[in-house]
Amino acid sequence: MNNIHKTPTQLTTDRLLIRPFTPEDTDAFFALMSDREINTFLPWFPLQTRAEAEQFLEERYLSRSEEPDGFHYAICLKTDNIPIGYINVDVGESHDFGYALRRDCQHKGIMTEAALAVLEEIRKAGIPYITATHDVKNPASGNVMKRMGMTYRYSYEEPWQPKNILVTFRMYQLNLDGRKERVYMEYWNRYPVHYIEKDV
């Protein structure tokens, strides 16, 4: 890293406010994280109670807002500043770029708009690359990755916990430091079933 970066107070785009979560966002967060369809492709079960949402919000977002090189954002429309989704960038070696968006806000370019704004902050922070993965059954997520400039590198099968199902993921990567040849190989090395698909 070139410098120590903390999540900015707020990013803005044409339609969006992209900001850290606050305790006042619990109800909106619960609505997002309790939606069974949205959580089909996320690594946890839908939340069942507001208390679960409050705990999840604290552990995953509120307690991490000051994390060095952390990017943990609520995605909000400018019209009401209520969270409709989130973006996370892992601070570990994968620099995994994760996201979710409320169903009624999908297919409107909102996630791409938010992702590109956060990507600019990632560049400023000197992070050398980002990765992202999506279930092959969720190609719309892969389309967001492509619109960010990420490229497909490989696929792998993972026994996914806690859901205890076998999922085939596609791994995308964007190198930000000019090292175009770099490929993050952790998933390839960890899971024995891996391959490169054609025409992805």
From TrEMBL:
Domain of life: Bacteria
Pfam family of the protein (one): Acetyltransf_3
Keywords carried by this UniProt record: Transferase
Record field: transmembrane: none
GO molecular function per UniProt: acyltransferase activity, transferring groups other than amino-acyl groups
Xref: InterPro entries: Acyl_CoA_acyltransferase, GNAT_dom, N-acetyltransferase
Residue ranges occupied by any N-acetyltransferase domain in the UniProt entry: 16-172
SUPFAM superfamilies, alphabetized: Acyl-CoA N-acyltransferases (Nat)
Full protein name: N-acetyltransferase
Organism name: Eisenbergiella massiliensis
Organism classification: Bacteria, Bacillati, Bacillota, Clostridia, Lachnospirales
